[in-house]
Structure formats: C-alpha cells, structure tokens
C-alpha cells in the first residue's frame, strides 16, 4: 500500500511538470581555475531602479577537495549611486545554511517586506545606497 502511495505521488509530481528551463543564463569559466565557473542572470527583486544579478559559483569536488560539488548562490545589487565607481561590499548573512533572502529583505538589504507579507518597499538605508553589494 505504501509503495502504491509513493508511486502515485511520483506520477502526480511528474504530470505536474518540471519548472520551466531557466533562460538568459550566462556562464563564464574562471581564468585561474578553469574547473570553476559562475552562472548568473539578470534578476529583479524589490528595487527595480538598479541592475541586479543572481547566480551560482560552481566548484567541483576536484577543486574544493570535498566529496561533493558545491554551488554557492549569490545575489549582486549595483549601487543606487554611481555604481561604476562605487566600492563593492560582500555581505554574508548569518550562519552556514542561512538563507540570504532574509538579509535582502531586512537588515541593510535593498527592501523591507511589509506587514501584508506580499508587498515590499525600498529600504532607503540599504547597503547598496552607495556600494555595490554581493
Ligand atoms: C561533480 O560534477 C561533475 C560534472 O557535472 C560530475 O561529473 C561529477 O560526478 C560530480 N562529482 C560529484 C562528487 O558529485
């Protein structure tokens, strides 16, 4: 009976379809470490006045020395003021495994989630006011 339930669940998932293939992803190889690559795409969250990108740094186990491949997620937000000449700040949220989403929508992030949990407003004191933020 359990097996029938599991098979039914898998068939239901399969018929629901997979997420659409990601489009407009750019992948570049590291020049110093060709086995390492970065894939990213332009994105839009909260603050539509700046260029923003989301992606992964892909590091194979042969590079890290670990028993698994690692893909580290990142978000990059250009500074609201003079991004070409602004410094870049690297912001690491919390502890290993903590989602960076929280940092983006709170603290010094680019926006704040409003009380209705569905809308956001720009954070006027965001780190990306005068700095590009990774
Ligand atoms: C890491 O990724 C490569 C390329 O996709 C794959 O051939 C390899 O099996 C993966 N290694 C591990 C430990 O998952």
Automatic annotation (TrEMBL):
<protein>
    <submittedName>
        <fullName>Uncharacterized protein</fullName>
    </submittedName>
</protein>
<keyword id="KW-0732">Signal</keyword>
<dbReference type="GO" id="GO:0004185">
    <property type="term" value="F:serine-type carboxypeptidase activity"/>
</dbReference>
<dbReference type="InterPro" id="IPR029058">
    <property type="entry name" value="AB_hydrolase_fold"/>
</dbReference>
<feature type="signal peptide">
    <location>
        <begin position="1"/>
        <end position="16"/>
    </location>
</feature>
<keyword id="KW-0325">Glycoprotein</keyword>
<dbReference type="Pfam" id="PF00450">
    <property type="entry name" value="Peptidase_S10"/>
</dbReference>
<keyword id="KW-0121">Carboxypeptidase</keyword>
<keyword id="KW-0645">Protease</keyword>
<comment type="similarity">
    <text>Belongs to the peptidase S10 family.</text>
</comment>
<dbReference type="GO" id="GO:0006508">
    <property type="term" value="P:proteolysis"/>
</dbReference>
<keyword id="KW-0378">Hydrolase</keyword>
<dbReference type="InterPro" id="IPR001563">
    <property type="entry name" value="Peptidase_S10"/>
</dbReference>
